[in-house]
Amino acid sequence: MEFKTIAVLGRDEDPRVAEPMLLLAEHLAQAGIDVIADSAENFDLPARQVTETGFARQADLIIAIGGDGTMLHAARLAFDRNVPLLGVNRGRLGFLADITPAEMLHSVDQVLAGDYTREARQLLVAERIRDGKIQAHAMALNDVVLQRRETGRMVDFETRIAGRFVNAHSGDGLIVATPTGSTAYALSCGGPIIEPSLNAVVLVPICPHTLSDRPIVVPATLEIEIRVLERMDTKAEVTVDGHTLGDFTPDDRLLVRDAGSRVTLIHPPGYDYFEILRSKLHWGRDSRRRGGSDEVPES
Q1: Does the first or last residue of the chain, that is N or C, have fewer Cβ atoms within 10 Å of its Cβ?
Q2: CATH topology of domain 5-115+269-280
Q3: Within 13 Å and on the Cβ side, how many CA atoms surround 98?
Q4: Would you say 109 is a known binding-site residue?
Q5: Where are the domains of the chain?
Q6: Residue 172 counted as an annotated binding residue
Q7: Given 12, 14, 60, 68, which residue is catalytic?
Q8: Phi/psi of residue 6, each to 5°?
Q9: Can you give the pTM of this predicted structure?
């Protein structure tokens, strides 16, 4: 696929992001690419000014510079038209935005030359239902989270999978994560890492009151239903990729299922998911050595 119009996206108020955005926009413009951005007027970016909502209609590719939060934001812009995404990491971990600033121009040139791979990442759709009507809905690349709000009290809730009762839970909430989201909030709560090509979701309890309440991996084809149970002073909310879907009460049902569509990520040559895991999670480092080591022990 030829990329004739490329959108450059990032938090330009951050100098660590603004500098590579400017460098990239200049490089693309010199290559004859039609560069668009929503911040072109803010710091003389050599790009055509377009609102973010117009990115998906006009761009053949979105290049997001920042952390995984920026990639999630770019994914929300690209949902409807499946515009592919390329990520340059200026955040802390960068499981989604995998290109380093030092590699940026070379990697982009490889992509422009057609030397890249495409990867489809699963999406979830979450619906908050009351009285049989959808009150709110959103798409998730990472996760859908039920969590307690403005209270130190636990949340009591129950889950059903494909209409079958699974468990009644007490704790701080529940994460329903895609394979992409398995390395985000779900991982910090003890969930497993799921290889991105698997069509699965993981349900991860947040600080469960019962220690036997463990994460469970199920096929993404099964619909998940969550209800909050009546409890004094219970306050809960639902967030989707970090954005609120609203308060969640015992009168509501939360339905989570596979969205039936995917987000396409672009990777330059040499992309290796397991190498990213080794790098970001510091696998293979000998913590006994002073200062640590990046070497992987010989097998």
Answers
A1: C
A2: Rossmann fold (3.40.50)
A3: 21
A4: no
A5: 5-115+269-280, 123-261
A6: yes
A7: 68
A8: -125, 130
A9: 0.91
